[in-house]
Amino acid sequence: MDLLFPPCCTFCDDPLPDGSVPHFLCAPCKQLLNQETLWSGKNNEICERCGWRMSPGECSRAKCPSCGSVPPFLHRVFFVGRYQDELRQAVIRAKRPAEHPLAASLGGLLAEKMIETGPSFRVDIAVPIPKFWTKRIVKGANTAEVLVEAIGRRLAVRTAPAALAARRRTRKQGLLRKSQRDANVRGSMVVRAGYDFHATHVLVVDDIMTTGATAREAARVLCKCGAAAVSLAVIARAAQE
Q1: What Å distances lie between residue 195 and 87, 104, 200, 225, CA to CA?
Q2: pLDDT tens string 21-71
Q3: Residue 73 backbone phi and psi in degrees, to 5
Q4: CATH number of the domain encompassing residue 136
Q5: 138/75 same-domain check
Q6: Which burial class, exposed, middle or buried, applies to 69 when counting CB atoms under 10 A from its CB (0-12, 13-18, 19+)?
Q7: Range of the domain at 22
Q8: Under a CB-based contact definition with an 8 Å cutoff, are residues 155 and 111 in contact?
Q9: How many CB atoms lie within 10 A of CB 15?
Q10: pLDDT in the model for residue 20
Q11: Which parts of the chain sit beneath pLDDT 50?
Q12: Are the CB atoms for 32 and 86 separated by under 8 Å?
């Protein structure tokens, strides 16, 4: 099959040496996209809960200046890198149905970030941030669902692509002021009937995080349905405001 359809890098389309290349990304592209780790035992400069970059002085404080004033619905945040340069291009491209192989590759990179934390970090189930049906018609698919499936395969955890439902159409978060974003998504999601999250650690997955309002709303409804903890995994963390 490789003779007819030789494997290519999902980001640059260059031929890969063989099909065993991790995530179908060539080494140069993997290095370009894999910008930084979220958490390191030697570097305490990023808040685990929201991904906010902090100075060493801030890190010594009990509360992060970004999320210290909001309910701690999110247990931990993982991302591949900042929403800039090549990673920004990859996130934008991955939204298109034709680029879902790239989305799967990014999901693999994201899973590696979680594996790097060690065996002590475990999740029970992964769910995507939902899209309202009108947005699905326009966009053709939900990139977060592709990411969830890739992460589920790599981490060997259950996935529930349809567990969360969007109750209404929301305005685009990136076009709103920070103060408007919580209100924009409040009450916009619901856990579908038949899903039991009691005492589970749920991983919520999306492509990009700005202020975290959407993720916090998802975590809020999951905790209301019995989830013991909710963590977030996104491809990119937007610049701090």
Answers
A1: 34, 25, 11, 9
A2: 678 999 999 999 986 544 443 444 667 666 666 665 554 445 566 665 455
A3: -70, -30
A4: 3.40.50.2020
A5: yes
A6: exposed
A7: 1-33
A8: yes
A9: 10
A10: 60
A11: 1, 37-44, 59-61, 69
A12: yes
